[in-house]
Structure formats: structure tokens, C-alpha cells
Amino acid sequence: MTLEREHVAELFGLAGTFPRPGWVVLDAARDHRFTGELIFDVDPEVRVYFERGTIYLAERVTDPSLGARLVDAGALNAAELEHGSMHVGDAEHLGRLFDRVPSVDRQTTLVVTDMMNDTCVSWLARQHVRDVTSHPYRHHPAGVHRWQLPDDAIELQPGDPLPPPAPTDTPVEIALPGSVFAGSPLEQDPLIHWDEPSWLDDRTLHTPACEPAPSPGVTETLPAGDWADDLERTGLPEPDADPLTPTATMPALPVQPPDHFELIWPSGEIDDHFPDSVDTHDDIDRAGPTARVARSSMAPAETSTPADDAGLWDVDTSNPSFGPGEAVAHPGAATEPDLAEPGSAGHDTGTATDDDVSLSVRRAVASIETGSLAARRRLADTPQADDSSRGTDIVVPGRVATRTEASLWNATRAETPTAPSVFDEPDPAPAATVARLEPTATGGVDAADAEPTRVSALRRLIGGLRRR
Amino acid sequence: MSDNTVPRTDHVFKLLVTGPFAAGKTSLIQAVSQTPVVGTDVDTTGDESDVKSRTTVAMDFGSYSLHDEAGDSDVRLLLFGTPGQARFRFMTEIMKGAVDAVVFVVDAEATDTHTEAGIAMRALLADIRVPVVVAANRCDDPAEAARLARQLGALASEAAVPCQLIHPDSARDVAIEALLSVLDRLERADVVFLEPLQRVIELAGAA
């Protein structure tokens, strides 16, 4: 026994009410969570497919096949459609499309399908439907209903963003476990005291809360600590010895100062000789030892200018030839701070520049800069007579020129009348423009410079074809 | 080299001539090319033999060179023609690289080929971002050519040229139109080539 048309209309509460607007039928199907096919008697006939009240496909009978429309829309290419579809009789089944062709962009395909559905449904909603024929649980022959994944079946690939939480989900509260030192005076002290005795020792409570840090380079012994520290120094008693008899005390182990470190270079060289004391000054000690590099490596104080105070890491954003964030030195500096070798002229050996830390960091910075800024500056500073292989116009190199929308070529072209004869004779403007571009700050010919000549060549080609 | 400031540079422009079977691609290349067209035509078989006797199975190649009187540079136009049958579409995939423009030739009167031609054209434009010119062969009405181009999936900004490719002058007009599209792209920095989905939205809006 089949479900008659009248029964379906009664089921939707629309019996005897046709013709009705299309949106009324669509709303009724949604309210009843209808699953199957509804055929709307409009011109042209429209078939709408529902899954629990949700429309997953709507198409006019005059539309091309779904696969052809997806190819038309660019969601698929013809090869993907050919490999992803299965032809069962006259039907082109796309239910396994994403499985058969993993390279197909699922999201794009679904979005394009939704767009096409929206177009069709919005049109249908405005039509007066003469009648509706229903086929419950009949799906589209292309198998598109298989594309709809349940919410809990989303397969995430590595790197995919996590799906949003369900509205009913309660947020997970991440709380730190309670401290085992709750109530301890140590917990109230936010400082970490590296060289203080262990908290297990009662004597700790009587030690000052914050001791001055030991002087760098001074070897010292651990203060009297807990039983573990004593065990480290005295060792375990012999098996047969009286445990109450004190054992021989081992010499105290030297403890390195906390700011002692080594620089290990790629060559294997180790720099571990550092001064016993560090000269600090509020003005120059901006961020630790490395911050003094810029200031200490500058020219002598009597030649220093406010502009020099910008230092190596200051960025001159007013100069358009340099990009943001690019480290540049002051162009007028006669002795570049990052290039001055130790012991060279202008290097004050009697000040903080003797600091090996500064020297080590300077070497690292200079190594980094060698391949970029320093090399280019050296190239520019080299007298032209010393290098005969270079061109005639060497300027201080900066960042590689970038082509802007308002190029000189376009400005020149705007003044050139565009008449048909422009194809007959070579336009002299490009050559002049190229000649003007030569002495720019780019110091060479880049891709933007070659474009006007290509445009000129193309104009000649068009003119040649027209004359033919 | 007559001028030391401008080095000698040879410029090469490549056009891809594609379209469905028996649309007139080889005729277009033969009309424009100065050199004998390198073809791979063979005798047709089956239903295709009812349409024409020979067909391209791999590619057509023609060229047009322009030597500058000043001797500064040469300009060469290379035309690559594809086979029209769907089974040879892989040749289009091979030849579409580094082209400057696409000439999509379609026979305006062979309406049965238009659906397949539209699919092929949109699939091609989904992969490359170059100007496209639709050459509506056997068509004299610009409005009809424009309508056909829109039907195939071309945007309103993309050229549609009515042409009779059996006449060399008409074929050269198509090539010139393609080169003008390239020129327009070179000179206008604001030309943006749409992504496939953007093309769909643009077409839907136009409809």
C-alpha cells in the first residue's frame, strides 16, 4: 500500500488548500521533519529533497546534472568528476565522491551546493504551487544525502581547528592543584632563592628572606643546609661502621655563580672567561649585558651625536627605501658600530668595550649581519676602482625596490594619447621611462623595469598583426 | 644594440587556442601563423568522420615574429592549439602552463557542443589566471557572441568576438583581441582575476 498524495497533504495539514505559496509547503515539510522527495508542480517542476526536515538538495528538472553544475561552478574539475562519480544505469552517483577523490575540497563543494540550493529554494518559495507530490524516504539519485555527516562523525585531520563546543556543553574549568606548602611562610615569599637551604631544614625559617646575590666569579660553598646536603658532603657510612660516628667530611664542591655561562661556537671554541664584575649603569644597561653592545660599540663619546644614539637596532621608518623592522645603521656614521673590529681605530679599549660578553654578542650579531647589511654596505663603500666588474652607478643599496601601483610607466602612459597609430610606430615613451629609471635607488634593473619594454613589444606585435 | 641603456630583449607571448571538436582552432592558428603550422592531424573515425575528415590529436603550433627595424628586440607570438576531443584533454593540461592568454573557440551553430564546452572552459579557468577571449565562430552578431560567452561561463569583463575563422582577417582579429586583453592586464594593476567561487558569485549576480 502506497501513501497517496492526499494523505501526504493531510499529513502536512495542507489538504485542499492548493494552490499555495511555495514557502508554506516548505515550512510544513520542515515542521514535520519530512525525509524524502517533494515534487512541486510549478513551471518548471522543482524537486526538493529533505533529510529530517532539512533541505539538502533542490533542483529544477531543467537543470543540468549536479556533477555538471559543480564542474561549472569550479568546485570540481572534469577529471575529479569522472573519477569521483559512479554511473549506475542512467544515474550519476556522487555519494562516494569524497572517498574516491580525496583531493576534492569538501567544504567548497558543500558551499557551492548550498548556494545552488538557496537559489532554487528562494525562487520556489515565491511561486504559487499548484500541487505537491511526495515520495517519503526517496533520496536524490546522486546520493548527495551521504554527504551530510552527523555532527559526531566529523573527522579531523592534523592541523584542523577543533569544532566549536555544543551549546549544552559546560566549559571545563582548569584549576591548579592546591599547594602542599599552603600556610608555609615560603609560599608567601614570591622570590626564588637559589642558594638558600632547603625548606626541610628548620633553620631555613630563620634565614633572611632575601640574601644578596653572590658576586660573580666568586667560588663559595653551600651554607649549612639540610640532611641531604650533609649526606652529599659526608657520604654514606660504611656498612660495618658505627652510624653515630661522624665520617670524614669531603671537601666542599665549588658552586658556580648563577650568572656564569659559556658560549659554545659552531667551530667548537668555548668562551667562558668573563670578568669578575660587571659594570652597570642605569643609562646604558637597558636589558642586560647585550644591551650594552650598541652603546659600547659606538664611536667615541666626543664624536657621538644624538642620531648615533639610535644604535644598531633602531629602525629608520622615515626612509622609504627600508622596510619596517629592518635593522639599519645611520647612513652618515663614518665608523659603523657593528662593523668595527675590536682594537681598530675608535675602539676604546679602556671602557666597557673590553667586556667579553659584549664582544661575544657583537661577534654573533656581526656574523648574522655579514650576509645582508654588512656585505651590502661593504660593497657600496668599496671604491669603484677597486672592482672593475661592477657597474657604473653604485649607490648605497637598500631594500629591493617594490613596484607600486602608480608606477612611472603608468604615469607616462597617461599622458600619451591612445590612438590607433600607437601600434604602428614604436612608442618612444617606454625607452625614455627606462632611461629615467636607471639611476634610482634600486641600483639595478628589477622586474618592474622590464615590464614597460614588454608592453612596448606587445604593442608592436599588435600593430604588426593589424598591418598584415 | 643601438642603445646601451636598454639591453636587447626578445619578448615572447603565448596564446593557448582551445575549444571543442571542430570549432575552428586549427584554422585560427593557420591564419595567424607566419610559419607552416606544426600539426598532428590524423584522419577521423566513427561519428567524428561525419563532421570533418581530419582532426588534431596532440597539438597545433604556429608562430608570428616581428623583427624590430632598430634591431633592439624581436617579438614572437606563439600559438598552441589543443585537440578538441575530451579524451585528449590531458594535452590541454600540458600546454596551459605559462600562457599569456586563452582563446576559447566555439562553434556558435554547433549548439550541442556548448554544454561540454562550458564545462571545459570553466575547468580551465579554474586552474589558470590569464585573460580569456571567447571566439564565437560562424557568428556575425556581437550580441549573440556575448550571450554565448556568458552561457559558457565567461564574465562580462571577458571579451567575446564574433568571427568567421575560415577568413584569415577574422582569425587575426581574434588574436589581436587576445593580445589586447594581455595588454590590458599588463597596464592595469587593478585587474583582479577571480577565484572559481568568485566567478560563480559574479555569474549568479549577473543572472
Identify the notable features of this structure and list them briefly:
heterodimer; A: 468 residues; alpha+beta; four-stranded antiparallel β-sheet; 12 helices; B: 207 residues; alpha/beta; two-stranded antiparallel ribbon; 6 helices; 23% strand; globular
| Largest sheet report of chain B | 6 strands, mixed
Number of helices of chain B: 6
What best-fitting shape of chain B do the alpha-carbon axes yield?
globular
Distance between the termini of chain B: 54 Å
How much strand content do the residues of chain A show? 5-15%
What's the total number of strands of chain A?
A: 10
> How helix-rich are the residues of chain A, as a percent range?
25-40%
The helix-and-strand class of chain A reads alpha+beta
What integer value in Å does the Rg of chain A equal? 40 Å
Radius of gyration of chain B: 17 Å
Would you identify the regions of chain B where 5 or more consecutive residues have pLDDT less than 50? Answer: none
Helix content of chain B: 25-40%
Helix-strand sequence of chain B: EHEEEEHEHEHEHH
Please tell me the overall pLDDT of chain A: 62
Largest sheet of chain A: 4 strands, antiparallel
Strand order of the largest sheet of chain A: 4-3-2-8
